[in-house]
Amino acid sequence: MVELYESQRAMRNMRRAAMQRGVVAVLDVGSSKIACLVLRFDGTDRLSNAEGIGSMAGQSGFRVIGAATTRSRGVRFGEINAMQETERAIRTAIQAAQKMAKIRVDHVIACFSGAEPRSYGLDGSVEVETEVVSEQDVARVLAACDVPDYGAGREVLHAQPVNFALDHRSGLGDPRGQVGQTLTTDMHMLTVDEVAIQNLAYCVKRCDLELAGIASSAYVSGMSALVEDEQELGAACIDMGGGATSLSIFMKKHMIYADTVRMGGEHVTSDISMGLQVPTATAERIKTFYGGVHATGMDDREMIELEGDTGDWEHDRRTVSRAELIGIMRPRVEEILEEVRARLDIAGFEHLPSQQIVLTGGGSQIPGLDGLATKILGQQVRLGRPMRVHGLPQAATGPAFASAVGMCLFATHPQDEWWDFDLPVERYPVRSLKRAVKWFKDNW
């Protein structure tokens, strides 16, 4: 964990340096599209930490000056599986965004879905040294959290304190400067497959860029699609992407759970392609123009012309009813929502005081999806669009850009994480010390 701890700290410092220079890019590496936004910082509060430990999502101090998207290549289930193709797609998006912004970008902050995220809840407790809680006390209580054995081949992507308690007072956002004897904390830790992170970092490096931060798309989508009251009272954000559906649960403005279902809009397109025997590009167009999940009597009479280029005139000039199309789409959409429901049940979502569910992402734009989701997931379902940020083009304001807009908020006002504090060295996990000893033996 020392390696990750140091690399995350280095990335945070790099992000601060990039923001001081005034320009940074955010990169959403998805299965269906790769989006890039270039941010310029012009406010004096861009490095302000006045709000303390917590979610500091805001949009003051920056403006989007460049935006570009390109079709994703080499990404499956939110993970890179063809390095050269993904590198080419990232270069295309970055160059187009730089051209629009008329400025060169050296640092990017990236987000991705997939990588099999797992959530853990940790807690720790220490005695306050001088009655008044200091930065060092916060570092010690975070270090006192008992890190579980999350297995080989996994890395910690987020480690965020979500609650502090001082003596009998709980629910503190920032305990620093307060008087008390015993400080306790609850922390949410999210681990992912380390190979997925390494591939993304290596791909960004191959594009001659510096990686100045990395985040889970489940987290950043929730930051942009949930309004402040929903983040405070408890809500789930479901980001239906192309290759994966990310879900996150927020409470008291902190993410307390995240997971990913390895199905998305591309699977619906694939079903249409196989069911109607048409190319994938045609299936995507049919889904976009005629798709839905609720069939009515009118849909039996609404015919869709299928165009093909097989050379067989009879096969290329067919028509199908919209009801038939809906009959292909609905089972897959139901399967995705049922899987999401199972993950929410595992997380104990029904015990939250508010059970608002927000659907976002490109896949959420299927007509009638909110009504179907209400039947499967619960009563309080709405479609969410990302917050408006300054300078964002009209084409990038839809649900498909929830992750990209969330990355802007994450870049400017990140929540404090474990590695933002100077943790006592003796509290590093034993496994990391063994690695360090092995490295020392191998290199000396």
Automatic annotation (TrEMBL):
Main location: membrane
Biological processes, Gene Ontology terms: FtsZ-dependent cytokinesis
Superkingdom, natural source: Bacteria
Listed PANTHER family: CELL DIVISION PROTEIN FTSA, CELL DIVISION PROTEIN FTSA-RELATED
Topology of the protein relative to the lipid bilayer: Peripheral membrane protein
Domain SHS2, first and last residues per copy: 24-225
Location(s) in or outside the cell: Cell membrane
Known function: Cell division protein that is involved in the assembly of the Z ring. May serve as a membrane anchor for the Z ring.
Quaternary structure, from the entry: Self-interacts. Interacts with FtsZ.
Lineage: Bacteria, Pseudomonadati, Pseudomonadota, Alphaproteobacteria, Rhodobacterales
Protein name (Swiss-Prot/TrEMBL): Cell division protein FtsA
Organism the protein comes from: Shimia haliotis
InterPro entries linked: ATPase_NBD, Cell_div_FtsA, FtsA/MreB, SHS2_FtsA
A Pfam family hit: FtsA
Keywords, in A-Z order: Cell cycle, Cell division, Cell membrane, Membrane
Annotated GO CC locations: cell division site; cytoplasmic side of plasma membrane
Family stated for the protein in its record: Belongs to the FtsA/MreB family.
Classification via HAMAP family: FtsA
